[in-house]
Amino acid sequence: MSPVSVAYANLLSSTLGEGKGTDPARLEGDLATRFRDAHSQVEARIEKGEMGFVRLPGDEAMRRGVQEVADSFGQWFETLVVVGIGGSSLGARAVTDALLGPHWNEDSDEDREHYPRLHFMENPDPGSVSDLLARVDPRRTLFNIVSKSGSTAETMAQLLVVEHFLRERLEEEQVRGHFLFTTDPETGVLRRMAELRGIPTLAVPPAVGGRFSVLSPVGLLPAAVTGVDTAGLLRGAAEVESLCRNPVLKENPAGILATLLHAADVEEGRRIHVLMPYHDRLRSLALWFQQLWGESLGKARGVDGAPTETGPTPLPALGAVDQHSLLQLFMEGPPDKVILFLRVGGRDNPVAIPSLHGEEPALSYLGGHTLDGLLEAERRATAEALRRIGRPSAVVEVERLDARALGGLLMLFQMATVFAGALYGVDPLDQPGVEAGKTLTYGLLGRDGYDVPSLEPEDAGGYRFPLAAASEPSRNP
Amino acid sequence: MSPVSVAYANLLSSTLGEGKGTDPARLEGDLATRFRDAHSQVEARIEKGEMGFVRLPGDEAMRRGVQEVADSFGQWFETLVVVGIGGSSLGARAVTDALLGPHWNEDSDEDREHYPRLHFMENPDPGSVSDLLARVDPRRTLFNIVSKSGSTAETMAQLLVVEHFLRERLEEEQVRGHFLFTTDPETGVLRRMAELRGIPTLAVPPAVGGRFSVLSPVGLLPAAVTGVDTAGLLRGAAEVESLCRNPVLKENPAGILATLLHAADVEEGRRIHVLMPYHDRLRSLALWFQQLWGESLGKARGVDGAPTETGPTPLPALGAVDQHSLLQLFMEGPPDKVILFLRVGGRDNPVAIPSLHGEEPALSYLGGHTLDGLLEAERRATAEALRRIGRPSAVVEVERLDARALGGLLMLFQMATVFAGALYGVDPLDQPGVEAGKTLTYGLLGRDGYDVPSLEPEDAGGYRFPLAAASEPSRNP
Questions:
Q1: In chain A, positions 25-84, which contact chain B (CB-CB < 8 Å)?
Q2: How many domains does the structure of chain A reveal?
Q3: Which of A51, A182, B194, B362 has its CA 20 to 30 A from that of A193?
Q4: Euclidean distance between CA atoms A156 and B363, whole angstroms
Q5: Is residue A447 part of a domain?
Q6: B135 and B260 share a domain?
Q7: Structural domain harbouring A391
Q8: Given B273, B295, B299, B337, which residue is catalytic?
Q9: Is B379 exposed, middle or buried (0-12, 13-18, 19+ CB in 10 A)?
Q10: Residue B62 belongs to a domain with what CATH number?
């Protein structure tokens, strides 16, 4: 039995009404053919070893290596701080937020079964960084520095701040014992420093990019240290990976998602793809998906080099709360969205709603239901309200929120992303558009070899309100 | 001196290049005229008393009433739980996340100056609700139930769960003392229950809708209970409100924002409006803005009744982390976005980056800067990289993140929203599109007077993968 399922009737014209959504006959016609082609492009790149994420679920040696490091460190430290940004933190956060829950760090040692507390140092926001450092015990904290290249400005700056923090509080020779680097197996400053100073490391496989690294040591180490069932995670991923290697569109859940979302965008202009879990613990998964889908498909040029400026905009949402924020726009705004509901089938404790105040009609109908049932009624009602006005949605579902199901979800979305890349005709593995900003940042900070760019001031020409403020810049980088 | 400033050169063709952005001459031409008209429509509705949020900053009696309730309750309780969803929580969360910071609840009583801990019960997620209730001491917890109508299904269900929780743990006559209702001054189930049982209440002024309620008792009570300077908050809001009553476009910061964002959407198809603070504590403000902008402007019909299906999609982002997630799409994807940077000018502790490992070029350039300087360099570099390829942005800036500045920001965005409503030709105060889903939810839950809707199953016709799962629905609402 697959750990994930996909219900997609509400993406089809047979359900939405003539001229809206995709004609289901095409799933065995032109779209099946198009998908077969996309599938073979992806298979060719897997064959060439370019899509390393596909191989991770079967890499038992890698998993065992991570688990050994985790088991040894797990005994020594009270707190793990993951220092990383973007692909170096979003996957680990998606996994641990889903499986540990929001109160892990407030739990007692006993409730955590003596697994460490877990913090993420992502943004180089000075308030957040100094608040966090003020709260951890340097003698009992491990800093996992994660950067494949070892050149990420934010993470390197935080590394320097953390090293200074440790040096001030520990003996010189103790400092290195509080670091664990996750980086390229051969090159980069983190690799060099680790070798020079004897800092333990984990390797990001070369063919695994940041946003596809959740099942590599990047995501597995924080999971393993906090007691997540990494074997279950990879088992679920392997099951879904195997389903997604199928060239037959209707038998490939990632193929179905990629094909129907791509068609909705390019054929109907539904270019905003909303991922809306109805489960608080999956909010971080939606943020992980946002990077995966947006950075992989948002490309100025196709693989053929032709200008394209393509790519859907992924919008994370949360049910039911965003019914009270975004649903008005989804229902009545431009018909430019597809909603992907994410549903968990069952809960250990659905929480009964007691029958109180039966005399009040605004309360009495609720008694006897559960909060879980209320959430699911809201989700179904939202899907149906959208369907009735011809607006498309789909449901990705897992039976229970456990490691296996989560591994399945992570693999489903990664496979859907590379299929979508092939359908859009872009390379889902690169991100050339972020280089310009990096170079300008280096220039602004005076890094050797980078010009100080002549920046157009943003308030040039007096286009600022109020005008007086323009003359006193409060801060120089 | 205005507590907020707006730098908008990067929205203009003079900066972005011919054919991109708005010709600055129009700010004193057709756009000035169009804004004058929008302004007079808004003024007319303010005059008629329909836009209650404008009057809140000057309502000192309201503020004092809230403060008195807060001062009395603040002494008795260790924890405040705000039970509300959408407009009943997003504003309070934006204020308290910005001014209390992320570790408030972990701080000691002394560090919190004996102000209560603060939790939000928003989603009726059974895991979150039961986790939270397991963590609070019922004898020392106040539940602020917030629903203007008193009919919000999620909030009413949570009220029943909370009441049951309290009844099981306290004496019958004590229960009512742990509730504070914020609701309509006259009607609704909360108002009735409060009168029947002697539960203290605060009133949401009738002409103040949910998403415009942050400066009413809805947002002020949680702020006041946790020691936020509510007078400062309203003072900043009043200052900006007064600036935003000016009919001259170039002298009205909310007018500038509304006019240029509207023009970017309808004239250039830049329909995704990104609000991207470079400050962790302002992440929740971006979520508040998302509801405000999306729910106010996303409308199927204009005020004239004609079909329109209009409204930009607001996308919250966070700098610098989302440079590692969304920037690729912003740079290379479709030219359908405007980025609104949100910047805080100064910090108490910018956090020095130490000069260590000077032999490593990937590290040495960072030493001597601060984390705050790094963040600002990243923001400027991002704005400049976008500008160089003709992609628009603007900067909303406050000098310091304090109550006054936050009040200013809240008022700026609310005024921009009602001006934008006039420019789009829609009513920014209603939300007719959410009714269909509510009615269907009532039907699914068997509320009297609502039909059980005949739902199209989402997996109708076998459009589900894997097929087998379709026959066993795991949960009935």
A1: none
A2: 2
A3: A51
A4: 6
A5: no
A6: no
A7: 4-48+233-424
A8: B295
A9: buried
A10: 3.40.50.10490
